[in-house]
Amino acid sequence: MRRPRPLLALFVLLFAFATAVVPAGAITNGQPDGTAHPNVGVMVVDFGAGPQRLCSGELIAPTRFLTAGHCTSFLVNNPTLLGVTFDSTFNPSTSTVIPAVSVSVDPLFGKGHGDFHDLGVITLASPVAASPVVLPTAGLLDRLGAQGGLKGQEFTIVGYGATGYAFGGGPPTPVDFFPAVRRIATSPFKALEQNVLRLQGNTTVTGEGGTCGGDSGSASYLNVGGTDVAVAIVSPPVDRRCVGNDANYRLDTPSARAFLGRFVTLP
Predict the structure, then answer these.
(1) Are 70 and 62 in contact (CB under 8 A)?
(2) Residue in 165, 211, 182 with CA at minimum distance from that of residue 53
(3) Which one of 39, 80, 103, 234 has the fewest beta carbons within 10 angstroms of its own beta carbon?
(4) pLDDT digits (tens, 9 = 90+) for 230-262
(5) In Å, how far are 60, 133, 158 from 264, measured between CA atoms?
(6) What band does 208 get if pLDDT is binned at 50, 70 and 90?
């Protein structure tokens, strides 16, 4: 069904906001990732006005792409509108986009009290020639937190989001939102909650990064014993201007593992 372009723009901004779209050198204070994370991609939607980017995400299996539930819930019954590209820069004319076969969202998405269940998995039509991300063991962040192992830790964030927002002369507008470039930054630990990992966000004084509009669904990685583990994904809203703390939905909790275990064998 053909839908007007302004509606798509509204979807993009809505989901960027609803998902802890917090900046990170675009990510805010970041830099182009190049080929360092070929398993990180971006959702591509076409409502009739041509392919456009939406949220970020990552491979958890050759044909399974993990992203946020708020990025996918409205596409469950319309997977043909959706695809995913893993090109480091999304170009609507030249990027390779793998069509979606189906879209699944945590059945408790938006229904939990204190647990948003913000998870969605896209099944792709063909496998991706990249190694899936490493998912965490059950309760990994709780164990590390109890041992004091999170204090001072740096997390790596990778996504296709804006580099921030420009202000003045009208409503704030996302910067570097088009074209979508996969970028990388680091962000320090802030706090650990039952279902949420909070990172320091955009701290320009120290050169740290954060996440912003379009980074929803992208993972936060923690190096554990020499392996980068995708411990959480960008989720709840914190700061629409991408200058505050980042909120990330944890992947090591019983509720997250109950959903993810339907698609992959968990460690």
Answers:
(1) no
(2) 182
(3) 80
(4) 999 998 654 566 766 688 999 999 999 999 999
(5) 7, 11, 22
(6) confident
The pLDDT tens digits for 86-122 are 999 999 999 999 999 999 999 999 887 778 999 999 9
How far apart are alpha carbons 134 and 132 in whole angstroms?
A: 7
Which residue matches tokens 């944890």?
A: 250
Distance CA 267, CA 252 (A): 10
Q: Which tokens hold the place of 22?
A: 């917090």
Distance CA 200, CA 243 (A): 10
- Which tokens in the block code for residue 103? 């879209």
Ordered DSSP codes for the chain: ----HHHHHHHHHHHHHHTT----BTTBB-EE-TTS-TTEEEEEE-SSS--EEEEEEEEEETTEEEE-HHHHGGGTT-GGGEEEE--SEE-TTT---EEEEEEEE-TTTTTSSS-----EEEEESS--SSPPPBPPPTTHHHHHHHTT-STT-EEEEEE---SEEE-SSSS-EEES-SSEE-EEEEEEEEEE-SSEEEE----TTTT-----TT-TT-EEEEEETTEEEEEEEE-S---TTS-S-EEEEESSSHHHHHHHTTTS---
Contact 242, 211 (CB under 8 A): yes
58/13 Cα distance (integer angstroms): 21
